[in-house]
Amino acid sequence: MSASGGSKAIIAALSANLAIAVAKFVAFIFTGSSSMLAESVHSVADSGNQALLLLGGKRAERARTRTHPFGFGRERYFYAFVVALVLFSIGALFSIYEGWHKIADPHPVESPIWAFGVLIFAIIAEGFSFRTAIKESLPHKGDASWVRFIRRAKAPELPVVLLEDLGALLGLIFALFGVTMAVVTGDAVWDGIGTIMIGVLLAVIAFVLAMETKSLLIGESAAPEVEEQICAALENAPEVTKVIHLRTLHLGPEELLVAAKIAVDHDDTATEIARGIDEAEQRVRAAVPIARVIYLEPDLDRAEQAPSSQVR
């Protein structure tokens, strides 16, 4: 997944959220609605999250050092994980607290026209942002479902922006529901209920993001189909008879470490084995361009050497 697509979606979301945050705070000042306050904090948190994603992408481009010989590609996963923590701590917990406070001490929504106007504007702006995220994700999603794309994507930016934009749209709908019910019924408790709904929604999204980015952060292998391509490329080298075992690890979204033990003919000379390993590496890089770090260990196929009675 190219970083450009993710950056475009992040910038679109950041621009929308900054404008929406200002509008929501203005609406909160005029209405006193807890739903509007929760949505204001939600937009501020989202803006900070998008800034973190941009920062992570920039820091991940640093060249490798002696203490970090494989580079800094996984910093993108770290900052995506921080985004999940921010979304939960600032967005979800604040919204749930504010909603509980409004239910315990309800006060009417004043000048609701401000809330309705800002919420409609925010829904339109978030819709454009969400559309951009979907458009940038489609080439990478392929035929997979959206759930599978979010779970399997190795670049965290697009899944994070997709979930944030989806959460923002649903949160706006919850806020609109809470404010509308509070105005129609004259019961401000509905405003608090809408606020708690926003908080629960953000908590769920934060949990999903945390689980997915944690998996990437501690290290994920390549997808099964990618590992099959690597095995095929290795076994197509003349000096390699088979792949005994293979391990892969994403050092970053666009950088894969490949470690394999390969079986070679016991009659091959050291020169032939070295040449075969070089050719095998070239075949792997041609088949899987992100396989940038490759370690191959030659060995003999023990199964072929064992007596026929011991082979299963």
Automatic annotation (TrEMBL):
<dbReference type="GO" id="GO:0016020">
    <property type="term" value="C:membrane"/>
</dbReference>
<feature type="domain" description="Cation efflux protein transmembrane">
    <location>
        <begin position="10"/>
        <end position="217"/>
    </location>
</feature>
<feature type="transmembrane region" description="Helical">
    <location>
        <begin position="77"/>
        <end position="97"/>
    </location>
</feature>
<dbReference type="InterPro" id="IPR002524">
    <property type="entry name" value="Cation_efflux"/>
</dbReference>
<keyword id="KW-0813">Transport</keyword>
<feature type="transmembrane region" description="Helical">
    <location>
        <begin position="158"/>
        <end position="183"/>
    </location>
</feature>
<dbReference type="InterPro" id="IPR058533">
    <property type="entry name" value="Cation_efflux_TM"/>
</dbReference>
<dbReference type="InterPro" id="IPR027470">
    <property type="entry name" value="Cation_efflux_CTD"/>
</dbReference>
<dbReference type="Pfam" id="PF01545">
    <property type="entry name" value="Cation_efflux"/>
</dbReference>
<protein>
    <submittedName>
        <fullName>Transporter</fullName>
    </submittedName>
</protein>
<dbReference type="InterPro" id="IPR036837">
    <property type="entry name" value="Cation_efflux_CTD_sf"/>
</dbReference>
<dbReference type="Pfam" id="PF16916">
    <property type="entry name" value="ZT_dimer"/>
</dbReference>
<dbReference type="GO" id="GO:0008324">
    <property type="term" value="F:monoatomic cation transmembrane transporter activity"/>
</dbReference>
<feature type="transmembrane region" description="Helical">
    <location>
        <begin position="9"/>
        <end position="30"/>
    </location>
</feature>
<feature type="domain" description="Cation efflux protein cytoplasmic">
    <location>
        <begin position="224"/>
        <end position="294"/>
    </location>
</feature>
<keyword id="KW-0812">Transmembrane</keyword>
<dbReference type="InterPro" id="IPR040177">
    <property type="entry name" value="SLC30A9"/>
</dbReference>
<dbReference type="InterPro" id="IPR027469">
    <property type="entry name" value="Cation_efflux_TMD_sf"/>
</dbReference>
<feature type="transmembrane region" description="Helical">
    <location>
        <begin position="113"/>
        <end position="134"/>
    </location>
</feature>
<keyword id="KW-1133">Transmembrane helix</keyword>
<keyword id="KW-0472">Membrane</keyword>
<feature type="transmembrane region" description="Helical">
    <location>
        <begin position="189"/>
        <end position="210"/>
    </location>
</feature>
<dbReference type="GO" id="GO:0006829">
    <property type="term" value="P:zinc ion transport"/>
</dbReference>
